[in-house]
Amino acid sequence: MYIVNTSFMVEPPVHERWYDLFANKFMPYLREAGFGGDDAQGQRRIVFTRVLTDNGDPHYTYSLQVEVPDTAEYRRFMQDVMGEYSSIAGPLFGEQALHFTSLLKKIDI
Questions:
Q1: What is the DSSP letter of 77?
Q2: What is the pLDDT of residues 63-81, one digit of tens each?
Q3: Could you give the CA distance from residue 17 to residue 25 in angstroms, rounded to a whole number?
Q4: Which residue from 71, 96, 80 is spatially nearest to 30, judged by alpha carbons?
Q5: CA-closest candidate to residue 8, choices 60, 53, 57
Q6: CA 47/CA 56 separation, integer angstroms
Q7: How far apart are CA 10 and CA 26, in angstroms?
Q8: Which of 106, 108, 95, 98 is nearest to 66 (CA)?
Q9: Per-residue model confidence (pLDDT) at position 38
Q10: How many CB atoms neighbour CB 97 within 10 A?
Q11: What is the pLDDT of residues 24-47, one digit of tens each?
Q12: Cα(76)–Cα(109) distance, rounded to whole angstroms?
């Protein structure tokens, strides 16, 4: 099992518009693309959090974690979901809303 972790750094002047787009357009698209819901054990397969810091940075930072079963689904997530996000958010927000994605391998200990 893998976790796709995408971090978003959003500047205050565009935060409200970015958040509205993310919550009302991107998250429904993510679920429609087949990512999300609960797994067989009732565990969430999507976690969205705000990263809290005490270093005084003026921007907002969020983390989206999506569980995927294999690297093929990771590639589909990157092409379909993040490709769609980038094609919409890039022109609207430019460098005021940046993101990067990491692939994490779940390890049971």
A1: I
A2: 999 999 999 999 999 999 9
A3: 11
A4: 80
A5: 60
A6: 25
A7: 15
A8: 106
A9: 60
A10: 23
A11: 999 999 988 988 766 665 455 899
A12: 28
pTM of the model: 0.87
Segments in 42-93 forming alpha helices (H) = 71-76, 83-93
Structure-block tokens of residue 33: 């693309």
Q: Which of 38, 41, 37, 30 is nearest to 6 (CA)?
A: 30
pLDDT, position 44: 54
8 A C-beta contact, residue 47 and residue 100: no
For residue 30, give the nearest of 68, 61, 72 by alpha carbon. 68
Torsions phi, psi for 63 (to 5 deg): -130, 130
Residues 6+ apart with CB under 8 A from 82: 6, 99, 101
With 0-12 / 13-18 / 19 or more C-beta atoms within 10 angstroms meaning exposed / middle / buried, residue 60 is middle
End-to-end C-alpha distance for the chain, whole angstroms: 14
DSSP lists the bridge partners of residue 46 as 66
Both tokens of 40, joined, read 């067989």
